[in-house]
Amino acid sequence: MDYSKTLRNNNKIYSRTGSQRQSQQHAADFSMRFVLSGNERYDIGHRNLSIYPDSFLLLNSGTQYSSDTDSSEPVQSFHINFDRQFLQDFRDCITMKDSKLLARQGTAAKPDQEYNETIYPFRGDIRYNVHHLKHHLDNGIQDEMLINEYLHHCLINYYSIYNEEVLTKVDKLGFLNKGTRLEILRRLNMAKEYLYSNFNQNISLDDLADHACLSVNHLLRTFKQAFNQTPHQFLIQLRLQRAQLLLKSTKYPINEVVNLIGFECPSSFIRLFKTHYKITPLKYRQTA
């Protein structure tokens, strides 16, 4: 279902379904981009990102980007743009004491805070929250108080993910200087984005290291520190997750699923899938 909804507090929600769409625009507000079926591609500077139903993209205010979909199957996208004041109020409420919150009326607006503009996992509470919000909107809900409560919880969910995916990983890196750790994680996230967006390709360590602007050995050492996995282990897990999506939402034969996720050997895929999920791909499809 397609709609564009602007709330009285200027939070905006967009839902679109279609294929072969291309647009050139900029993100006027802090924005979360979800894809509930299919995939959507984004070009941000020299970075080419793809988001699928198991991931979402965060864009900071003012970011220049282009997006497109080119799929034989309809792509269902769901975007939330947060008003600057709503976002600032939320940040203040989770970072300031009540006494300061009561005394802050009339204070000057703060500059926008920027977050790691990267691909994040779409799972757990934020997935549950977004799907319920969309269900209500699809059914014509007009209660803005309830909608804004859902948006408030989306921000709570994101901050929890941000803490796990950024702050905790920064602390894992073995460098004394925090600025160095933040820069290393930024580059590692570029490697992670490359894996997310090219999981079905034959990716070499050299390509991955070049994309992250790190040497191969530096990449291997710091990636394991931050993500508790080697790049190869991360890629295999990602391919298996994408296989789950295809098995659940399409009727592709198992051999076709194997090709679509970048595996070469069906027997190897079936063995890895069963080892990881304790069920064969065929039984998973039958029970999903």
Automatic annotation (TrEMBL):
Gene3D superfamilies: Homeodomain-like. It holds the Pfam family HTH_18. This is Helix-turn-helix domain-containing protein. GO terms for molecular function: DNA-binding transcription factor activity; sequence-specific DNA binding. It comes from the Bacteria. Keywords: DNA-binding, Transcription, Transcription regulation. Residues 189-287 form the HTH araC/xylS-type domain. The keyword Transcription applies. PANTHER family: ARAC-FAMILY TRANSCRIPTIONAL REGULATOR (PTHR43280), HTH-TYPE TRANSCRIPTIONAL REGULATOR EXSA (PTHR43280:SF2). It comes from Mucilaginibacter pineti. The keyword Ligase does not apply.
